[in-house]
Amino acid sequence: SNCSLKVLLIANPSKMADKKNLLLLFDHPTEPVFMDKGGNGTVFDVPDSYVTDRYNQMCKKVQRRVSSASEKNVQVKEIAIPDLSCSMRLGRSEQFSIFLKSHRKMASHLIEIFTKMQTVDELQSVAVYARDRVNPVLFNYALSVALLHRPDTKDLELPAFAQTFPDRFIDSKMLRSMREESFVVERSAARLPVVSSVKYTASDLDVEHRLWHFREDLGVNLHHWHWHLVYPIEAPDRSIVDKDRRGELFYYMHQQIIARYNAERLSNHMARVQPFNNLDEPIAEGYFPKMDSLVASRAYPPRFDNTRLSDVDRPNNQLRVGIDDMKRWRERIYEAIHQGYVLDTNNEKIVLDDAKGIDILGNIIEASDLTPNSTLYGDFHNMGHILIAYSHDPTNKHLEYAGVMGDASTAMRDPIFYKWHAFIDNMFQEHKRLLSPYEKQELSFPDVRVESIQVESQGQVNRLTTFWQESDVDMSRGLDFVPRGHVLARFTHLQHHEFSYTIKVENSSEATRYGYVRIFLAPKLDDRNAPMLLEQQRLMMVELDKFVVTMPPGSHTITRNSTESSVTIPFERTFRNLDKLEELQNFLCGCGWPQHMLIPKGRPEGLRFELFVMVSNYEEDKVDQTVADCGCSIAASYCGLRDRLYPDRKSMGFPFDRKPRRGSEILENFLTPNMCAVEVIITHEDRTEKLREVPARS
Fold first, then answer.
1. If pLDDT is split at 50, 70 and 90, which confidence band does 694 have?
2. Which residues form the Tyrosinase copper-binding domain (predicted)?
């Protein structure tokens, strides 16, 4: 392609660059690279040839002005720069989307340049050069993927995306107040947090708006963005995409989001999400994000109620996709599922078996670079995002950018995201329904019996409580062209009291057994208050935790805290103080469901849930690999382990990923001796745990 790589490297005798400085390139994404970065005013000494023409005369003056106050300067070595023209095709003020093939190609080119650099020094030079020439979001994405995958930088803690691009996570009004605060109040200690208005995107006339706290949650949207960083759709080096069970993880992570969303809907007296499966029908729900894009300097376009999809034809993005294409791809994917095999580009059959079938389907439906045949099966999920994101201006007649569905960091704010993914999930479930149900012997664990499970929170047994809480996030690194120093954004989000599990197990054999404990939670009644059949309930089972236990002969009590969950990342990862990064070095992964959203909201009068635990045989489930501390073993259930195999041999979602066996139409009949279920009531207290009061400012 015309994006081929020409890299000339010059040997460099000088000392190595400090790789931590690379992280400073994420700061203030739309300011020139020679401005001060980081909290301590670090300045990059940029070679003259690297400065863009616009600032050529200015650079030295500004540098003198900034450096005099600066505590440290970073020397940038001059090297021959590879050809970046391919990645520079996207304008600096345009919108970058990983769902667009032409944009992924540009990102892929830049990732290749960043990963091919032999030393951190050279990477720093190229990154400094590229930073002011390519689109800021494209730069952030490519550098993030490169840093996560280069052996010499993968231990770096990436700054949370919300700190660099706050415009993706807060409304325009708040953005303005934050700029005001930093401009007017010079000392950052005297600055007041800017409080996010609660429920600002719609009124209560909009039923969907009851779920604002889920869809517009900072941690939920960050999780989605970070997952797509760890699992890019395409990359120059196949190994970056081709991670263990990547397609299956695409299915499972999104399936769990839908299950968790449905529990939240029930908590708010709403029916389960209806799949958006007829592309000719108008989209009933509108969405008005009320957000401004800092890079594009204009508002995110809204979608009006009852918008119809139309064929998208936008030559400037090399983008043409029609509703007919989508229907064709859907038919072919369903046909492949029903026939039990897909065809690769040589017309060879690849069987969709019990173990790998779901993984192949994941890569076909998403579609990632690993799809065996993109001509035949297309790019279904990504193009669905694109059709919806451009539904307000499909032919670029009005020169409008994509709506929130066009970006992984904002898509989960829109109610249509869940309807689209419910439809995508139905395709996966069609395949799972064709597999033979797990029989008793596949589920049981001889000699091991789970006697009981209970949860305890604040002295109450099998009762959990949720409430609202305020937390601050420092977003100053993304506020460009304003005086430096911290500016806090204050969010109101769902939170729950910590709880612990107590599981009593009995090992009646003579030998020590190793068990894999799997804990799930699902609503007990459906939206009509009727008991659910397992066939429906299993699709609403949310994984809460999965961990290994050692069971010597006899009876044991296993206790586990809710904060140890294999699904979530610690609260401090979402809401954290920028200056305290040092303590968090061991949390290397920003990927994971936010801890504060672990359990559904429940209802003021209490909502009944079924808590399920299973202890399976770890000897059968374990994956042979040395578990050296990769620093990344936190949220393995949704994000896998970095550079490792997925730490469970069973299908993701086991034992609920297939139809229940005959005679176990309800959960009670499904249980084998190594399983147990108990009713848990989740109560919501409609109160807010506030932070220190701040004086009101108009």
1. low
2. 414-425
